[in-house]
Amino acid sequence: MNPPSSLVELSFKEKCDWLRLTRTTTVGPVAFRDLLTRFGSAGAALDALPTLMTRSGRRSKMVIPSRESIEQELLAFDEMGVRLLAACEPDYPSYLRAVDPAPPTISVLGNVDLLHKPCVAIIGSRNASAIGLRFARQIANELGDQGFTIVSGLARGIDASAHHGALDHGTVGVLGGGVDHIYPRQNTELYQEMANRGALVSESPLGYRATARDFPRRNRIISGLCQGVVVIEAAERSGTLITARYALEQNREVMAAPGSPLDPRTKGCNRLIRQGAALIENTEDIINVVSNLQLPNFQEEEASYTSQNMDWENTQSDIDAARETLFSLLSPTPSPRDEIIRQSKLPYPIAAACLLEMELGGEVCVEMDGRISLSL
């Protein structure tokens, strides 16, 4: 699959700027994209941040990392053999770039080429049954035989079993912590095998230890890399179902293996099937489902980081005036960004710029999927 023609390799300085902006607190993927759209480059956006965050009436919690710390992180990536991929670069995975908003940067330890093959995620319970573990391993191996890369989260249970089944073909583990942080420890040997024969992916800095709030971000990348997500054994309330929800939002296929109504580990799968997920019993079922997937329009992402031709200096008064209107439409409950802008009846660039300044100033919270709520 060929990347859009407008994608470019970043220089070391540009990559430093991208990573520094990514690592800035209060700058999520939506704010990152809007900053580059407004200022044209990560370097120019960094220069503008101090001014932007002071426009808010609240004290911003923004912390901008030093250039020296970011350069040290890039050098540490180099020493480990880790590649940092920016969303504007050709080697960044096309499916993940089509996610709205895409993670601005990911770090990859291992074989980057695996991210460009057709990918299928296999996920499920950490406390899986013996038959569930065997099924995950079997279909992972058979999908690998058919040219698919298996993606999962390197957790205990179904994740680990799927990775083991696909090791001979190449498998990708997405981590909540840094790409150098092994979790859980019992998967140390599997982690090392995957570093040598597969790939490990993370959004987090080196040395970072994941907390509970990091796993939804990881799950969103798992589904974003793939054409479809296969769920094998999931309780009714589990992180696995969060990944399935992300897959639906990203227009990916969701598939589930049915299970006994007496086993609480399969209630989540059975519910997914009732809600419209494809019922799968073997590898052929999975291939048939993903072969019918409507592919994302990868060309749409060409303009994601392209600067708009606007006179931002002379529109600042309009941006300031928009704040009261947008505040009146926001609440502590997250709402879709596009719906807020539509209801405001403000010009899109003005409303988007105002929401960006409100986010940087800590006045609003922006979810990973772009939904916005008032900060409490």
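^ that was protein a. below is b, sequence first then the tokens
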Amino acid sequence: MKAIIFAGGTGTRLWPLSRKKSPKQFEKLINNKSTLQLAVERLLPDFKYEDIYISTNYAYKEIIEEQLPKIPEKNFIFEPEKKDVAPAIALSISIIAKKNPLEPIVILWSDHLVKKVDAFRKIIKAGVSELKNDPNKIIFIAHKPRFANTNVGYIKYGKIKNRMGGFNFYSFESIKYRPDRKTAKEFIKLGNYAWNLGYFVTTPRFILDSYEKLAPEIFKNTESIVKEYGKSNYKKTLIERYGKVKSISFDNAILEKLKKEQALVIVEDIDWSDIGSWEALKEALQKEQKDNIIKGQVILKQSKDSLAYNYDDKKLIVGIDLKDHIIVNTKDVILIAKKTSMSKVKELVEGFDKTEHEKYS
């Protein structure tokens, strides 16, 4: 049983902490640990360090090695440039498949928080057990939706097909990548839709067969790269060829084209959150919405439903009569905004390119 954690994103919505040179998954947001470190910890002791792979960008090589010293260097799979998820998964799975294409593999992401870790581990074990019955499939680990989240995909599931390890395995009906808010609310009302966490239990062979049939351009390009893996010219070949395919999500390239019989769905509550934005971090850490979430030297008076993170020990943040606010203070930037305005952060930061503010992106 292998696991691969993808850690190549940039995390613009967690700016100004998350920057191009040090994205959100490497920042120590929770208990002085990064979400990448927490993602690895969740797999222990069921996985050995040598069974855990990390997919990331060459630009983050030193950060990865510093934060994960126990994972063998050969288990780091580097992209030479940022593409969308589909090319990254194709590259990593192709490399892992060279050893054992039929060994179960769990696909995970580095920027999430999972509070119900025991349930998470049991779900993975159940998925692997089910895969032994038929390795030619993918098993979605989906989550019962808490609200109309528009930053995730939604899986429509059907009847119970099997039960293993205390969990129901539902039939797979369809998947919708990031619906608008109105559609997301409709999905929740229908009751047979779940969040697609991007967590899967499958085999490398199934994934590669799917690419060959459904995304042949990516498959052929990746194949031409990986045949040089382990040779002296591999990195040169990777740099030359990796960027030749279009950027496309894994959902759009593969998942939306799957046949119903090729997948099963586990739908559970593992208290999962995508720490992709400051408001998402607050939602993940709060017990009640009115709670304030603070870090560093912060004093909030007569305030509620706000987050204040201070990364400068030489300054004190004081907030009075705040409601629904996000305050983030780093060494060079102070962000102050309403929670309802945080969707504008990504657009703001992307606008820094080729301006006098580019150094802050």
